[in-house]
Design goal:
Strand content of chain B: under 5%
CATH superfamily of chain A: MetI-like
CATH architecture of chain B: Orthogonal Bundle
Strand content of chain A: under 5%
Number of helices of chain A: 12
Radius of gyration of chain A: 24 Å
Number of domains of chain B: 1
Number of helices of chain B: 14
Largest sheet of chain B: 2 strands, antiparallel
CATH superfamily of chain B: MetI-like
Shape of chain B: globular
Shape of chain A: globular
Oligomer: heterodimer
CATH architecture of chain A: Orthogonal Bundle
CATH topology of chain B: MetI-like fold
Distance between the termini of chain B: 32 Å
CATH topology of chain A: MetI-like fold
């Protein structure tokens, strides 16, 4: 059905516009303002034009952080998505087990992000943590996430998998629930194997929710900050310093307002590009359902 | 036999999920000496001292009250501005609607770290620094767009004939909206409230930056456990356990709609 043409609908949108303008446009304009000035003292700035952009874009530390960020995002996606699909397929479809599983699965999503970091600190510390002690004393694997870059990187990845795979599972499960029973019966009559059912019935039906899951996970992992901050503080060295960490260090730690602002805008534009892809995918998805 | 392998996979995964949480709960019932002194799967000297410490120390329990205050404020603000807007997006075509909708989404996707510094300066300039309303407004950055998106998804599922019939029957717009339409999207409103609650509850970066004393969230209070005498691991664990409880309670009410909300109302 067609939507009604009515420009007066803008009045209904105005409150949202004002709130978001207050919390997004004004701050963003401040960032733009900072990014072209050299701030010597509060209220005292010199216009420097695109200098900060040039400096930031040629900063090798930024290139490293960006590369690290991309590797991290793709690693967690490559593990979380197949794992999420796999677990979603094993969930029961009716009975009390459904509610129990859903509640347990959603639990990590509702834990404040720094507490997630804390949980993994106390879980993997070599002196008091369950996994830390088990790995070191019982399995005799030298493991110390605060000193060894590889251990620390792996711990952050495992933590992210622990934290966010439930999101993929919940979305896939919702997709699976939407498949009518008749499809499975038809497959049974045709003598389809378990694999064929997955490949030709379940996977196509999950396509929509999987797209949402992948894009949400990609974007959220792209701006991960709190969990690695609590767990490793970006170290040892710079091995777990991702983009948000890098930016926060620059803005709050060193108070380099100009470069930090320029970097913020570049970061924002990258995210904007991804958002556009996301938007296109999700709106086309809606059209597909309507048909 | 296949059913069994399935169940084993599921159980292994749930064990992986629950192990770190179990360890935190286990530690919260131990004294710090016991935590550092030895390794045990259950507390030898079961104690609730860590919890009594939190509930009797004002600077600790005020953290929880502060967090809940700004989370509730944020949920109320987000829902009340998002409801009419979501209705407009789901029913009308108007100048610039698609651009507006996209712009809202970009705010949900923008990294809070980008807004950190400007927020800090801005709220200090307007004199809202270290208040609950400042954090609530800052969290609107990602919660209002999210609320509009989820609500729009739910509202689009309600046939437009209902609106038409109501208007033909002579209902005014506000009367129709509050007495007919809102009860119809109750489930959607519930899920949206849940998501606003959730994202405001778990966010720390902005909440910590915008507060110092009066509105300090519990998540930031937890950094206090590092003192001259070393880490108070027991207290830290107990505080962590307590932050999980509000979430666990609200999940129960929305468990059947949760996935639809994560898909932004579009399953």
């Amino acid at each position: 059905m067609e939507k009604w043409d009515n420009n007066k609908a803008w009045f209904l949108v105005l409150p949202v516009f004002f709130v978001v303008a207050f919390s997004a446009i004004i701050p963003l304009m401040t960032v733009v303002n900072y990014s072209v000035q050299d701030i010597l003292a509060p209220g005292q700035g010199i216009f420097v034009g695109p200098e900060w952009y040039r400096e930031v874009l040629h900063d090798p530390r930024l290139h490293e952080a960006f590369l690290r960020q991309l590797i991290f995002s793709f690693t967690v996606l490559a593990i979380e998505v197949p794992l999420g699909i796999g677990v979603a397929l094993t969930l029961p479809s009716k009975g009390w087990g459904v509610s129990a599983c859903l509640v347990i699965l959603a639990l990590p999503l509702l834990i404040p992000w720094n507490v997630v970091g804390t949980i993994w600190v106390v879980f993997s510390r070599p002196d008091i943590g369950l996994s830390g002690v088990t790995l070191n004393s019982i399995l005799n694997i030298a493991y110390n996430y605060t000193a060894d870059p590889v251990d620390s990187w792996l711990t952050v990845v495992v933590m992210d998998i622990w934290h966010w795979t439930p999101l993929v599972i919940l979305l896939c499960y919702a997709g699976l629930q939407a498949i009518p029973e008749a499809y499975y019966q038809a497959a049974k009559i045709d003598g389809a194997s378990r694999l064929a059912v997955f490949r030709y019935i379940q996977l196509p039906k999950m396509r929509g929710v999987l797209m949402i899951a992948i894009l949400l996970r990609f974007m959220d992992s792209f701006m991960i900050y709190t969990e690695p901050f609590v767990l490793t503080g970006g170290g040892p060295g710079n091995s777990t310093t991702f983009l948000s960490q890098f930016l926060t260090k620059m803005a709050i730690g060193q108070f380099d307002l100009g470069p930090a602002a320029a970097f913020s805008l570049i970061y924002f534009l990258v995210i904007l590009l991804f958002s556009y892809i996301f938007y296109t995918v999700i709106t086309n998805l809606g059209k597909g359902v309507a048909k | 036999m296949r059913l069994n392998t399935r169940q084993i996979v599921l159980l292994v995964y749930l064990a992986f999920l629950l192990l770190p949480i179990y360890w935190l709960v286990n530690m919260s019932f131990k004294t710090t000496e016991e935590i550092l002194g030895g390794f045990s799967l259950v507390p030898d000297h079961f104690t609730i001292a860590n919890y009594t410490m939190i509930f009797t120390d004002k600077s600790w329990y005020m953290g929880y009250i502060n967090s809940i205050k700004y989370v509730v404020l944020n949920t109320v603000i987000s829902l009340s501005v998002a409801l009419p807007a979501a209705y407009a997006f789901s029913r009308f075509r108007f100048l610039g609607d698609k651009h507006m909708f996209f712009w809202l989404l970009t705010n949900r996707m923008s990294p809070p770290a980008v807004f950190l510094l400007p927020f800090f300066n801005f709220y200090q300039t307007v004199g809202l620094f270290d208040t609950h309303i400042a954090v609530a407004l800052a969290h609107c950055l990602f919660n209002v767009p999210l609320a509009v998106w989820i609500l729009e998804g739910f509202m689009s599922g309600i046939p437009r004939e209902i609106d038409e019939t109501a208007f033909i029957d002579g209902y005014s717009f506000p009367r129709f909206f509050f007495t007919i339409f809102i009860p119809l999207v109750k489930a959607g409103i519930g899920v949206t409230a849940f998501f606003c609650f959730m994202f405001s509850w778990v966010e720390l970066l902005l909440a910590r930056t915008l507060t110092t004393v009066n509105a300090k969230p519990i998540a930031a209070t937890m950094t206090r456990t590092i003192s001259a005498a070393g880490m108070d691991w027991g207290g830290l664990a107990a505080a962590g356990v307590l932050t999980m409880i509000p979430g666990a309670i609200v999940i129960w009410f929305v468990r059947n709609y949760m996935a639809k909300g994560f898909a932004l109302g579009r399953v």
